[in-house]
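A.,

Following up on our hallway conversation. Structure tokens first:
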């Protein structure tokens, strides 16, 4: 089974803002970026499941791919609580330092931890790998993809942010090639 992990395209507010759960608009370059994504993954069978985060930045891209569109709430980006919509450089330094000191267990004020995100990703991963289809397309966010890849690379969840996931990035996972212990998601 192949699972494509696809990050949404660029957002209008740019990367200088913390916008995890905020439903921000896409950049004006969406059509061109979506075409690049489609060229990376090839034609999508109209019966293939295209699973998407409910965020409009993901849903809009998923809708352009074709296939059978399904939303999955567990694919939302990490909730950054009171940091949502604030420029990273404007966040209180002491809060950032506390969070960065233990990314796995310390949430942003009013938000969720990477472990919390990992629990959601685990549920989504179990549903994805249980599908009896040759290919699944999953349109989601960098945080979701990073936490899943950290698991598959057997990295501590707190190191997930060290993985680069570009806007419009496409990662192909061939589940049949994974060792049995990695097919199950353990936190």
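Then the amino acids I'd put at each of the 187 positions:
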């Amino acid at each position: 089974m192949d699972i494509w992990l696809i990050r949404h395209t660029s957002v209008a507010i740019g990367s200088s803002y913390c916008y995890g759960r905020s439903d921000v608009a896409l950049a004006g370059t969406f059509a061109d970026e979506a075409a690049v994504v489609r060229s990376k993954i090839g034609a999508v069978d109209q019966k293939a499941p295209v699973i998407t985060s409910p965020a409009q930045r993901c849903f809009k891209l998923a809708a352009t791919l074709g296939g059978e569109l399904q939303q999955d709430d567990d694919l939302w980006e990490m909730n950054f609580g009171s940091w949502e919509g604030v420029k990273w450089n404007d966040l209180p330094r002491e809060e950032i330092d506390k969070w960065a000191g233990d990314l796995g267990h310390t949430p942003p004020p009013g938000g969720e931890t990477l472990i919390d995100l990992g629990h959601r990703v685990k549920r989504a991963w179990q549903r994805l790998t249980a599908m009896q289809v040759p290919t699944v397309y999953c349109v989601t966010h960098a945080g979701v993809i990073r936490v899943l890849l950290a698991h598959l690379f057997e990295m501590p969840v707190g190191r997930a942010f060290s993985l680069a996931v570009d806007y419009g990035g496409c990662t192909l996972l061939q589940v049949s090639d994974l060792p049995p212990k990695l097919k199950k998601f353990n936190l």
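DSSP finds six helices and seven strands in the chain. Curious whether your intuition agrees with the design.

B.
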